[in-house]
Amino acid sequence: MSEIELHRKLLGDSLRNQALLAALKKVIQPGKSTLTDIGAGTGFISFLARQLGAKQCTLIEYSDTLALARELARVNKISGLHFVQAHSAEVKKPPKTDIVISETLGNFALEEGLLETMVDARRFLAAGGVMIPCGLRQIVAPVFAARLQDEIDVWPRVGFGLKLTPAREASLNNMYVKSVVPSDLGGDDSHACEWDHLAFGTGLDSAQTSSLRSATLRWNNQELGATVLHGFALWWICELVPGISISTSPFAPATHWEQVYLPLLEPLRLKLGDEVELTLTSDTRPKTGLRVAWKTRLMLDGRAVSTQTQDISRGRI
Asked: Is this prediction's pTM over 0.85?
């Protein structure tokens, strides 16, 4: 995706834009507040901040989009901006500002380095300052409908007498950006579980800010009923400031972001007494980039009947 196409989608998302505006209104003191915008892109967030009376905004952006931000500032006669073309981690002597904001969320919440950016962003924050976003919840839910799996798992239907098993295995070791709808999840969010909760700010220990995130969740037959499980859906709820959030839930108003679908290698046909165990791991350490893995076990009387282990590192062909 080109840079301008990315920003077209961002700026065309009115729900996102209004939420950011509302968050800034809650924290900006006109004529006093200073702000650092990390991953500033076109400068949109800093432009809003200046319109709300922020005294000074520092825009940090490593890509050439910063030149477009400068031009947009000139065209709109927006002053009080300081432009820095660099990755925020490269800034050796960061300015200390009252507000530090970074909207670097992906469809999979952490795929654009939000966690690492927010951890480093604390260097830019003045005493008593505000971090935006202030928190992130990651959610997972079982997918019961076959619709998404059928879209992805085309390999058995290709035909022509060809065995495509290695290609199928690689394909199903990937996560997919998809529009998940309530009917895929049984019609409601009663089976959705929080698998990760991050708080951004000062005073957090290393476990709370680790780039290696993992959780094990369980659903029993009494909760799920006799059904077929095809995969898992992921979404997130990002709290910008207390009381103002953006969500990619299939049960929330749609944004430009979509949900993420994790397929299974084979469907799980659940019977009375069965339990499903999912271990979900996200690794966004700089040396790794992005690695998501999921292990699914069908359990009966505390014993694993079957295990499916998937990892997007196996799907990179």
From this structure: yes
